[in-house]
Each structure stands twice: as structure tokens, then as C-alpha cells.
Amino acid sequence: MFIPNGDHPARGLTLKEAAILSGVTEKTIRHELAANVARSPRARSRRLFGPREVFYFHLVRELPFELNKDDRKDLFELIARRKDRRGHWRREPHRLVLTGGVPVELAIDDVLRRVLARVRLFLRGRRRVVSRPETLGGEPVFEGTRISVRHVGERVKKGEPTRDLLEDFPALDADDLEFARMFVELGRPPGRPRKLKFVRGDE
What is the DSSP letter of 16? Predict the structure, then answer.
């Protein structure tokens, strides 16, 4: 079970990106970090995550039962640090095994494929986004086009058929549409604070 850990570390996934890709809330990830269950490096005061961490959060989310803190921490170490054994967990080809009173076996190949495909799709899309003042006033667009990523993503979220969108934007493919949807979910980055205008009370 080899899980690459993303592109260049300086381009790791933010906490919000990791939450969207794993299907959990930002609060869930923050809780795991605060409880010292999960760990992630910092860069310029920001937490960064890779595919292994995303896989862990997604896997725990899909489990039909809850794990206690120690078992979650050991599972994270098994996945993120590529250990063969950790606590009650052991890694075998195509599955993870939790030993104890009632042993549990987790078939992980399908989950792993889905998570890695989703992460790769997002990283590919992120590399294609550019923002230049001379193009749509700096609005993020797909590289080599004047197609607003946000506009496409909003149409995807409204449920417009993929076929119609690909006809309207022949320069894009289905992966671009899915990335645009995730891009919209991330929300707009915080802008510069507005300058306050002070007015005398008698005006």
C-alpha cells in the first residue's frame, strides 16, 4: 500500500483543501490535530497535508464503527508514516487489520484508488489555474483560456448536465468540471480589509 505524499512540499494541501478532498469537516481535522492523533508539517504558520493524511481522514469517515483515540492515532501512524505495525493495527497486502477481541479487516484498495484519483485531479486542476490582471480583471481562469474557474464551478454546483457544460467549454474536460466544483467549495480567499472612513458625529 504505497501512498505518495503529494507534489512539492511547499505546494501541499491546506487544511480546507484536505477537508474537501477527504469529505470531512475542517472541525474534524482540527480536532484530530488538537488531540495529537494526526500530525502535519507547518509552512509559514499554515498546516500542510498530503495524500496519506487525506486517505486517513476519509478512511476513518467511512468506517461503520468508531475508533477510540489510541486506535485512531495508531492508524494514522500506520498510514502517514508507512509503518507495517502500530498498536493493534497491522498492514497487509490490500487490507488493514485491527486485532483485539473481535479482529477487523478493512479492504482498502477501492477506497485508496478513489482518494488518490481525487487528490491527483485536484492537484492537476490547481496547477492549471492562473490569475493575471489583464485577463478578466485577475479572476482565476484555466491556463490558456479566458474561462473563469469559479463561473464553471458554480454552474456545476447548480446541477447543469456535464454534456451541456462540455459543449459550452470545449477546452475543458470532465476533470476540469469536477475541479471547478471543488474550487467553488473552497470559497474566495480573504481579500484586503476595507479602509474605514471616519465621520464626525455631528456630520
Answer: H
The alpha-helical segments, DSSP class H, found in the chain are 15-22, 26-34, 51-62, 69-80, 109-128, 149-157, 162-168, 174-186
Q: Which residues lie across from 86 on neighbouring strands?
A: 89
Q: What is the pLDDT of residues 170-179, one digit of tens each?
A: 999 999 999 9
Max CA pair span of the chain: 76
Query: What grid cell was written down for 188?
Result: 474566495
For strands 104-107 and 129-130, give the pairing: unpaired
Task: Give the count of beta carbons closer than 10 Å to the beta carbon of residue 51.
Answer: 26
Which residues make Cβ contacts (< 8 Å) with residue 141, sequence separation at least 6? 129, 130, 131, 135, 147, 148, 149
CATH numbers and ranges of domains, the chain = 9-114 (1.10.1660), 131-186 (1.10.10.10)
Find the length of the chain: 203
Summarised one tens digit per residue, pLDDT across range 33-60 is 999 999 998 877 788 999 999 999 999 9
As to burial, measured by CB atoms within 10 angstroms (0-12 exposed, 13-18 middle, 19+ buried), residue 64 is exposed
User: What are the Cα distances from residue 56, in Å, to 102, 167, 174, 195?
Assistant: 22, 37, 26, 43
